């Protein structure tokens, strides 16, 4: 039978349905067999990923699909919209199924906290839960692939997309990258409730110069390998079926035309076997990058460099045939790309059943946004783990659910902003605002509200970010502040919900300032002047420079954009129904001028010395040194103490392990969780090594008064880095181990890594 099918394929006899071959052929043979039957036009069609937008009517799209000229679409999020497109594919000559992609970044119908917030939980289980639910909801809407996780290391918060990723740290982002991929893909990307992960943006998009979106990246190879590339590799180890190519250039060569990146590194060195997709219009952008003189050249560069599928395609469709005929590209350039697309469809189970995630019409939900389809309990559970308590003077928090609370601020009642950017198919009306959350929780006492300020009064900024996103109150600023002050005067405690509208923490939303926008700072000053206890609830997608406001506030809770159940989760923490346990996955600078300001920096030849004046050390003379809040920082309503660290040995051989242990005790009055963090410093290396690097962590729960031993096993692998020859090595010598509940306050011990011969 197998031979008969192959024979049929060879002689071009195609009436055997494609699906029938599945049982008897391996994936490779199946895909080759299919490729052998395809015309050039059909092959090119498979390389086109088309946006569902107003550029083509649904009829036109179906016509194109039926003619074999589209391989997949993105942007449609319902079974009943996707089904007719899949029907059209089933009417095409070879019945090659379509796949349907969408940006399911932090939830689908139920919106979970943004990436940066998820990372703040340091709770891999909770992060996985958010990804799994997103996959279930999205697959139930006929979606096969997500353009996520977004795993670009971000160390410059001016970059608006900092919000989408998981922060500044290589180890933490790499752990989350793998977890998210596995959560989306479940047991296998072919399961009906799985969606294939397309990790992005390959590579280094988070390192755009000056944090300006789409800007260039110039980076030495050692830093690239050491700090920026591991998360992508980790996503691949997690089984990511696809990878999206970044929009930036890398050392002068745009990612989309970068053969070193996509061939040498991704496919050859890392062995990636999945599908490589461009970003939206990323191929035609090569003209603007100045490496192609027209779209034809752009298509040539991209396909030769290894971009298999063109997102929002206006280059492969029109150009590949001409390029092949002129000899500018080879048949194998096209066939290799087609092989990847068909391979991904095979892995998604679409050849077995094109309707795997679309289901039958009779089972379509009457209302896609029906409440029963949401996972509110899980969204609330995850959201409260992502909140970071930054300050809590004299135990002001948690608040009592009584008395008069003045809730002030332009974000307190926003249903849109709390969802964060890239909120997939979330519906603002279904999100619980902070106002609603507090109301839901308070059974006695009263809540008075005043807006207090607008988020920006700059008309140019408003126009840029979109007036539909930011609804300004037309009243004069002074009147709004007055109203807020009056509300505060009547209250026992003031909660000011301040930050950025979500449109400021988004793609194409880079800022030159990290200050609170609009008149929010003025508002906080006025509220402070009332003498009432002041709680700041921050809602933002990047670290903000809140040095001044931090001094004024008695308590600060960082809530990022916490999703559909955000308001309830925030209320859980403010009222103490949940004890906060989040830790910052990114450093909070004192000012924008300190950027970049990440914890794992090099020591320099003249490191800062606290308290010493003008001593020619590395510092800014006009501002206190160091961050406002360090990486890994976050308080709890209880207190934890750490004993000195014990090392199982002061030497480590290359084949052995050593164990670093501390006792952690909950010395406060409440049960609570904390994150015990392990950092390592390589004291002397063949190249300068960072002052510390996160190597492991454990989130532990301790009952009031309880004490637990926390052990970290360390082996040679934890000590490896990329040397000047880009070899991944551990060099013998002294290492310092640090354990703490943030990156700054740590217990330290040293050990020596022995050389093979057994001596340092
Ligand atoms: C452009 C963004 O850079 C990318 O992250 C996203 O997946 C695509 N648009 C599709 O929405």
TrEMBL record:
Enzyme class: hydrolase
Alphabetical UniProt keywords: Glycosidase, Hydrolase, Signal
InterPro entries: Cellulose_Degrad_GH3 (IPR051915), Fn3-like (IPR026891), GH (IPR017853), Glyco_hydro_3_C (IPR002772), Glyco_hydro_3_C_sf (IPR036881), Glyco_hydro_3_N (IPR001764), Glyco_hydro_3_N_sf (IPR036962), Ig-like_fold (IPR013783)
GO molecular function: beta-glucosidase activity
Taxonomic path: Bacteria, Pseudomonadati, Pseudomonadota, Gammaproteobacteria, Pseudomonadales
Chain ranges of the Fibronectin type III-like domain: 674-743
UniProt name for this protein: beta-glucosidase
EC number: 3.2.1.21
Coiled coil regions, renumbered to chain: none
UniProt-listed Pfam families: Fn3-like, Glyco_hydro_3, Glyco_hydro_3_C
Native organism: Pseudomonas cucumis
Catalytic activity: Hydrolysis of terminal, non-reducing beta-D-glucosyl residues with release of beta-D-glucose
Signal peptide: 1-20
């Amino acid at each position: 039978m197998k031979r008969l099918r192959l024979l049929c394929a060879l002689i071009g006899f195609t009436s055997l349905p494609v699906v029938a071959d599945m049982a008897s052929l391996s994936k490779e043979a199946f895909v080759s067999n299919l490729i052998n039957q395809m015309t050039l036009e059909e092959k090119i069609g498979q390389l086109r990923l088309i946006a569902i937008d107003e550029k083509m009517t649904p009829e036109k799209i179906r016509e194109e699909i039926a003619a074999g000229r589209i391989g997949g679409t993105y942007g449609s999020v319902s079974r009943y919209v996707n089904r007719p497109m899949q029907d059209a594919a089933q009417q095409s000559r070879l019945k090659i199924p379509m796949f349907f992609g969408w940006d399911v970044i932090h939830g689908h119908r139920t919106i979970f906290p943004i990436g940066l917030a998820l990372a703040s939980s340091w709770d891999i289980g909770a992060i996985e839960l958010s990804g799994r639910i997103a996959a279930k909801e999205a697959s139930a809407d006929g979606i096969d692939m997500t353009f996520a996780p977004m795993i670009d290391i971000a160390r410059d918060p001016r970059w608006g997309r900092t919000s989408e990723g998981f922060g500044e740290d290589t180890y933490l982002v790499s752990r989350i990258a793998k977890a998210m991929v596995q959560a989306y893909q479940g047991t296998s990307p072919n399961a009906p409730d799985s969606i294939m992960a397309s990790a992005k943006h390959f590579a280094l998009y988070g390192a755009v110069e000056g944090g300006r979106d789409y800007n260039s990246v110039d980076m030495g190879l050692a830093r690239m390998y050491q700090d920026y590339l591991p998360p992508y590799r980790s996503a691949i180890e997690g089984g990511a079926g696809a990878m999206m190519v970044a929009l930036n250039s890398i050392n002068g060569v745009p990612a989309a035309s970068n053969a070193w990146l996509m061939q040498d590194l991704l496919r050859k060195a890392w062995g990636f076997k999945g599908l490589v997709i461009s970003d939206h219009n990323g191929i035609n952008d090569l003209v603007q990058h100045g490496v192609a003189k027209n779209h034809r050249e752009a298509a040539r560069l991209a396909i030769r460099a290894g971009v298999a599928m063109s997102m929002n395609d206006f280059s492969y469709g029109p150009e590949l045939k001409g390029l092949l005929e002129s000899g500018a590209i080879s048949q194998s350039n096209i066939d290799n790309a087609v092989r990847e697309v068909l391979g991904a469809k095979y892995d998604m189970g679409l050849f077995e059943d094109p309707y795997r995630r679309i289901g039958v019409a009779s089972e379509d939900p009457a209302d896609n946004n029906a409440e029963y389809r949401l996972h509110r309990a899980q969204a609330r559970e995850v959201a409260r783990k992502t909140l970071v308590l930054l300050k809590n003077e004299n135990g002001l928090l948690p608040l009592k659910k009584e008395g008069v609370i003045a809730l002030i601020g332009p974000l307190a009642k926003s249903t849109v902003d709390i969802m964060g950017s890239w909120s997939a198919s979330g519906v603002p009306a279904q999100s619980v605002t902070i106002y609603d959350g507090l109301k839901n929780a308070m059974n006695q006492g009263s809540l008075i509200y005043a807006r207090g300020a607008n988020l920006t009064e700059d008309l140019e900024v408003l126009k840029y970010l979109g007036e539909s996103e930011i609804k300004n109150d037309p009243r004069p600023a002074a009147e709004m502040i007055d109203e807020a002050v009056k509300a505060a005067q009547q209250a026992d405690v003031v909660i000011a919900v301040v930050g950025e509208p979500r449109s400021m923490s988004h793609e194409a939303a880079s800022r030159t300032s990290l200050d609170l926008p609009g008149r929010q700072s003025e508002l906080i000053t006025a509220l402070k002047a009332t003498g009432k206890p002041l709680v700041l609830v921050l809602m933002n997608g990047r670290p903000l420079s809140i040095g001044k406001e931090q001094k004024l506030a008695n308590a600060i809770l960082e809530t990022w954009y916490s999703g559909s159940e955000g308001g309830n989760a925030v209320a859980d923490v403010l009222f103490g129904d949940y004890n906060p346990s989040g830790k910052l996955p990114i450093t909070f600078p004192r000012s924008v001028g300190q950027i970049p300001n990440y914890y794992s920096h090099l020591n320099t030849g003249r490191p800062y010395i606290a308290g010493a004046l003008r001593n020619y050390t590395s510092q800014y003379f006009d501002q206190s040194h160091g961050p406002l809040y360090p990486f890994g920082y976050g308080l709890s309503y209880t207190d934890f103490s750490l004993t000195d660290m014990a090392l199982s040995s002061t030497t480590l051989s290359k084949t052995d392990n050593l164990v670093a242990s501390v006792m952690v005790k909950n010395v406060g009055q409440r049960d609570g969780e904390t994150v015990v963090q392990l950092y390592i410093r390589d004291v002397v290396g063949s190249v300068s090594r960072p002052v510390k690097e996160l190597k492991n962590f454990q989130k532990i729960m301790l009952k009031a008064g309880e004490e637990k031993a926390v052990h970290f096993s360390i082996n040679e692998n934890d000590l490896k880095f990329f040397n000047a020859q880009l070899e991944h090595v551990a060099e013998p010598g002294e290492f310092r181990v640090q354990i703490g509940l943030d990156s700054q306050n740590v217990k330290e011990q040293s050990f020596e890594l022995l050389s093979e011969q057994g001596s340092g």
